[in-house]
Amino acid sequence: MNFMNSWKDVEELDLKSLAMSLKEIIKKPAVLVLAGEVGAGKTTFTKSFIGMDDVVSPTYSVINEIDEYVHADFYRLKDARELEHLEIPLYVDGKDYLLIEWGKEFIEDLKSELGSGFHYYVLEFHEGSRLNLRNIALFSI
Question: I need a labelling partner for 92 at 20 to 30 A (CA). Which of 32, 58, 98, 134 fits?
Fold first, then answer.
């Protein structure tokens, strides 16, 4: 992974401007893997990135489509063989962004599944210096 940028002590109110900055930095079509512990802010960030407050984590549906976005949650996947059954290429056809929570261990498999037509990134969420703040780092793959 190649480091691209970082943001320190990010508050929830900062996520909209961070999302706008990311859209200027990353190339489309983009696979953006969101990494971090439970409660780190992955779904909250996705709401800001997509620009809709009613976005929910697709933990049980696994994949949701919203306009030019696809939002996936691989938390319940046990291994990479399950990716084949999701038929992700059908979801991302014509979409600009695929955001994946809990997908870091599946990056190489995603590359095989989706091919080189996509740009791949990891956005890592870590605890900040105070409660409810996050440090966020962007990497290209």
Answer: 134
**Strand ordering across the sheet containing 97-101:** 2-10, 134-140, 119-127, 30-35, 97-101, 69-73, 63-66
Task: Please state the rounded mean pLDDT for residues 3-28.
Answer: 94
DSSP E strand stretches across 67-114: 69-73, 97-101
Query: For the whole model, what pTM was predicted?
Result: 0.89
Are residues 2 and 91 in contact, defined by beta-carbon separation less than 8 angstroms?
no
What pLDDT sits at residue 80?
87
The 10 Å Cβ neighbour count of residue 137 is 17
Nearest to 127 by CA among 10, 6, 5: 10
Domain tally, the chain: 1
Which residue shows structure tokens 């919203």? Answer: 66
CATH number of the domain residue 18 falls in:
3.40.50.300
What is the band of 59 on the pLDDT scale with cuts at 50, 70, 90? low
3-state secondary structure (DSSP) of residue 127:
strand
Structure tokens, 73: 């949650």
Q: What is the mean pLDDT of the chain?
A: 89
**What integer pLDDT is reported at residue 51 of this predicted model?**
86
